């Protein structure tokens, strides 16, 4: 239990940070948009505060869009609040993928802006030439969009599936970019490593001792999986980690149909002698899981009875509906992703919304300056529990 002295000390520290942030805000208003403030050393002296208090106050104001720190340049008041529309830019290849995830995300994202018609514009990136070495098609933006960016017509952008180089070009136009399935100075990611660890823990709790991982091709997972296995004392029963998606070239990995590898893996396991068969599966790709379970069903095997399955899933998605209640589901919500992206893009003008979501972001340093990553955590749905339905959570 914390002592009263500890509580008082924490309160005093918070008050100092708040008072320092107030004075810094006043300084930013005095110097005007995009103007430079004194250096850290000068601020410590003039404000008569410790470095830790100053840094905490700076971080708070930076997160609220009041100040910006530029590596090697100093501290600046934020630029004047932009006007114009928000951009939503998507790689069109994602929309032809078999998974309903991308269409669900687009639906939820456009719903975030539905209260103010015309506030956001949707663009699909233009497919570019194919790289002969990787056979990957690059993407570009329509010329009218580049012209609008150069003319300052937009106040923020949300990108989905764009390359890092293309995102950097958009950022260089002077607007904030919030990205998913891509890396910008502000980007949203799913906590798949945590989902893997939760899945292993749940399988162990059900008595599983021969657990196999089927991983998504996008996030390295072997280390987290093996750590979770070791933590629960079942490393002696570990089956070789399987990477069924990476047999062959990866030129079309983003639109590769995951069901077929799932069917192949399910059939391989069904043919194993029962004594050698894994009793638990962690799958971090719902389309793979769908194919895997279909193959088990072909051979008279059922999840929850013959083999326990912990799997990634999307709230409201029909992909795993057939096996509802028989799986351990590590659920992510496209509505939550959409809300995080919308708030991230608009926080320069709506700082109170930012404080409810993006204050949880991890602050990072990159070659382009301070950046932040917001991890969205999974919701656990155990076997037999009622479905989680949150397809209307845009607010």
Q: Would you write up a description of this structure?
A:
With 395 residues, the protein is an alpha/beta fold. The chain has 3 domains: 4-77, Winged helix-like DNA-binding domain superfamily/Winged helix DNA-binding domain (Arc Repressor Mutant, subunit A), CATH 1.10.10.10; 85-190 and 335-376, 3-Layer(aba) Sandwich (Rossmann fold); 192-332, Response regulator (Rossmann fold). 37% of the residues lie in helices and 20% in strands. The chain has 12 helices and 16 strands. It has helices spanning 4-31, 40-47, 51-63, 101-112, 143-150, 164-171, 192-205, 222-231, 259-271, 286-298, 334-346, 351-357; strands spanning 67-70, 74-77, 85-90, 120-124, 126-130, 137-140, 154-160, 177-180, 186-190, 211-214, 280-283, 308-314, 328-332, 362-366, 369-376, 379-381. A 7-stranded mixed β-sheet has the order 4-3-7-8-9-15-14, with helices on both faces. Strand 11, helix 10 (286-298) and strand 12 form a beta-alpha-beta unit. It starts with a helix and ends in a 14-residue tail after the last strand. Mean pLDDT is 82; it is low at 236-255, 350-355 and 389-395.
How would you concisely characterize the structure shown here?
This protein has helices at residues 4-31, 40-47, 51-63, 101-112, 143-150, 164-171, 192-205, 222-231, 259-271, 286-298, 334-346, 351-357, and strands at 67-70, 74-77, 85-90, 120-124, 126-130, 137-140, 154-160, 177-180, 186-190, 211-214, 280-283, 308-314, 328-332, 362-366, 369-376, 379-381.
**How many individual β-strands?**
16
Task: Summarize the biggest pleated sheet.
Answer: 7 strands, mixed
Provide the CATH architecture of the largest domain.
Answer: 3-Layer(aba) Sandwich
User: What form results from the Cα inertia axes?
Assistant: globular
- What oligomeric state best describes the polypeptide chains here? single chain
Note the gap between the termini.
37 Å
CATH class of the largest domain: Alpha Beta
Count helical runs. Answer: 12
CATH topology of the largest domain: Rossmann fold
Q: What percent of residues adopt helix (DSSP H or I)?
A: 25-40%
What value does the average pLDDT take? Answer: 82
Roughly how many Å is the radius of gyration?
24 Å
Q: Spans of 5+ residues with little confidence (pLDDT < 50)? A: 236-255, 350-355, 389-395
Q: Give the strand order of the largest sheet, numbering strands 1, 2, ... along the chain.
A: 4-3-7-8-9-15-14
Label the structural class. alpha/beta
H/E element order:
HHHEEEHEEEHEHEEHEHHEHEEHHEEE
* Relative strand content: 15-25%
Number of domains: 3
């Amino acid at each position: 239990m914390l002592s009263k002295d500890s509580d008082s000390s924490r309160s005093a520290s918070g008050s100092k940070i708040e008072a320092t942030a107030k004075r810094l805000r006043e300084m930013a208003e005095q110097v005007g948009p995009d103007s430079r403030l004194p250096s850290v050393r000068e601020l410590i002296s003039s404000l008569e505060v410790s470095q830790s208090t100053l840094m905490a106050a700076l971080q708070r104001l930076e997160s609220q869009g009041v100040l910006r720190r530029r590596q090697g340049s100093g501290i600046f008041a934020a630029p004047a609040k932009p006007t114009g529309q928000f951009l939503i830019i998507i790689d069109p290849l994602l929309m032809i993928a078999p998974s309903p995830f991308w269409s669900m995300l687009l639906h939820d994202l456009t719903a975030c802006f539905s209260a103010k018609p015309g506030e956001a514009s949707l663009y699909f990136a233009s497919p570019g030439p194919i790289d002969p070495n990787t056979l990957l098609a690059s993407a570009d933006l329509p010329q009218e969009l580049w012209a609008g960016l150069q003319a300052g017509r937009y106040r923020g952008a949300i990108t989905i599936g764009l390359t890092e180089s293309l995102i950097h070009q958009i950022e260089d136009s002077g607007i904030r970019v919030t990205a998913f399935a891509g890396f910008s100075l502000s980007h949203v990611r799913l906590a798949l490593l945590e989902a893997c660890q939760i899945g292993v823990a749940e399988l162990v709790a059900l008595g599983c001792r021969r657990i196999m991982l089927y991983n998504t091709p996008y996030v390295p997972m072997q280390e987290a999986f093996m750590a979770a296995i070791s933590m629960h004392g079942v490393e002696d029963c570990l089956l070789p980690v399987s990477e069924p998606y990476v047999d062959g070239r990866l030129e079309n990995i983003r639109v590769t149909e995951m069901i077929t590898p799932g069917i192949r893996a399910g059939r391989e396991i069904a043919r194993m002698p029962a004594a050698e068969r894994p009793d638990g599966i962690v799958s971090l790709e719902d389309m793979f899981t769908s194919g895997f379970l279909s193959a088990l069903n072909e051979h008279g095997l059922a999840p929850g009875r013959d083999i326990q399955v912990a799997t990634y899933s999307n709230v409201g998605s029909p992909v795993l509906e057939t096996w509802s209640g028989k799986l351990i589901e590590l659920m992510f919500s496209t509505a939550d992703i959409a809300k995080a992206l919308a708030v991230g893009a608009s926080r320069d003008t709506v700082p109170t919304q930012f404080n409810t979501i993006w204050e949880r972001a991890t602050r990072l340093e990159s070659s382009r300056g301070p950046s932040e990553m917001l991890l969205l955590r999974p919701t656990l749905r155990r076997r037999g529990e009622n479905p989680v339905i949150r397809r209307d959570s845009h607010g």
